[in-house]
Specification:
The protein is mainly α and 378 residues long. Helices cover 80% and strands 0% of the residues. It has 16 helices and no strands. The longest helix is centred in the last third of the chain and has 29 residues.
Length: 378
């Protein structure tokens, strides 16, 4: 880590700052239901965020390869700041859904650029550690952000929007001042057609995309259905904030030491094992009725996250052609965005009818994902 160049540390700091201020989206379901909107409407609003995120994955990858990594991050953060303040003033469901989709577009636009810039700056053999440290910064913000947001929500939801907008603006300023442009594609490689051809030839990448899409359907329940499970058991929004902050704390404390072990083993086996732990954690939620049991479930799916995610990120960066790196990472983001479009809405609908089956089904999906990852030759 000491060998990382200065811009890498700047990127880590900006990521921490931005993620600490991600106040609104984890509490969007509670915000809407407590302001008189139905569970279905809350699910549709989260899906609207997913639509914006889907567009951001494609557009963000394209801009990262053409305008440059830094410029894409700056555009994302400044526009997110404006979008958050617009969302704070929306009152009708239609307007809330539209602006939430815009927030998804602007707020997720920076992700392919950040990951691509990190891969540009760090050599091949050090990327698992680099992505683990990047996730440490990401989750250090996540560790403190939701707990802070829970406190602010207890006073006024407006402060969630203002805090989110302010931290996005600060990250944009940091990126503009201190980050390099990173690698850009040549003009002949600006389009998506050569990227899609490369993806079509890459069986390893296609298997990873399919498996990641299934796991994303499961993992994204943490920001939607999991909150309803906790409040449905009679616990407060502050308890939900503390539990998902625990996820971030565990990643901050444990992921780097764990990575020193997992980076020595075959990547596909590590990713598959991580996916199974994610499923065990969410499956445990079906039977958890107390805070300690809920915390145990969080521990299980966090172990899976820490095992699979940094190795998966490095795996994608390593296999991506240099000139397509931003778009390759963007295509991976598309799988998570598609899951965000439909996952929370489907999850909440199943949860409303068959809550236990919803959580058990999460384990089933991760088992299928692990099987896909392990199938076929390298």
């Amino acid at each position: 880590m000491r060998a990382f160049p200065r811009p890498v540390w700047v990127l880590f700091f900006g990521t921490f700052l931005n993620k600490f201020g991600t106040f609104v989206i984890p509490f969007l379901t509670l915000y809407l239901t407590q302001h008189g909107f139905s569970l279905t409407q809350a699910g549709l609003a989260v899906s609207a965020y997913g639509v914006g995120s889907f567009l951001a994955s494609a557009l963000g990858g394209h801009l990262a390869d053409t305008l440059g990594r830094r410029n894409t991050i700056v555009i994302s953060m400044f526009s997110t700041s404006v979008a958050m303040m617009l969302l704070s003033q929306a009152r009708s469901f239609g307007m809330i859904a539209v602006i939430t989709g815009f927030v998804g577009l602007t707020g997720e636009l920076y992700r392919p650029a950040s990951s691509a810039l990190l891969a540009d700056l760090v050599p091949l053999g050090e990327r698992v550690t680099a992505f683990s440290t990047y996730r440490l910064a990401f989750n250090a913000g996540w560790a403190f952000g939701p707990a802070t947001a829970g406190f602010l929500a207890g006073h006024s939801y407006f402060w969630l929007f203002a805090g989110d907008a302010g931290t996005s603006l600060l990250f944009g300023i940091v990126a503009w001042v201190a980050l390099p442009h990173g690698v850009r594609a040549g003009k002949s490689d600006h389009g998506w057609l050569p990227v899609l051809r490369a993806v079509a030839r890459d069986r390893r990448y296609r298997r990873l995309l399919c498996a990641a899409a299934l796991v994303a359907l499961v993992f994204l329940q943490m920001g939607s259905t999991f909150s309803l499970q906790i409040t449905g058991l009679g616990f407060s929004p502050e308890t939900y904030g503390a539990l998902i902050s625990m996820n971030g704390v565990l990643v901050v404390l444990c992921e780097l030491p764990l990575t020193t072990l997992t980076q020595r083993w075959p990547a596909r086996r590590v990713i598959a094992a991580g996916y199974l732990f994610v499923g065990l954690g969410f499956g445990t939620v079906a039977f958890a009725r107390t805070v300690p049991w809920l915390a145990f479930a969080v521990c299980l799916f966090t172990i899976g996250e820490m095992t699979a995610m940094p190795v998966s990120s490095a795996y994608v960066a390593d296999m991506a052609p240099r000139e397509f790196r931003g778009r390759y990472i963007g295509v991976m983001g598309l799988t998570w965005a598609l899951a965000l479009i439909c996952g929370p809405a489907i999850g909440m609908q199943i949860f409303h009818e068959y809550p236990v089956a919803m959580w058990v089904g999460c384990f089933g999906l991760t088992a299928v994902a692990a099987t896909i990852i392990l199938s076929g030759p390298d």
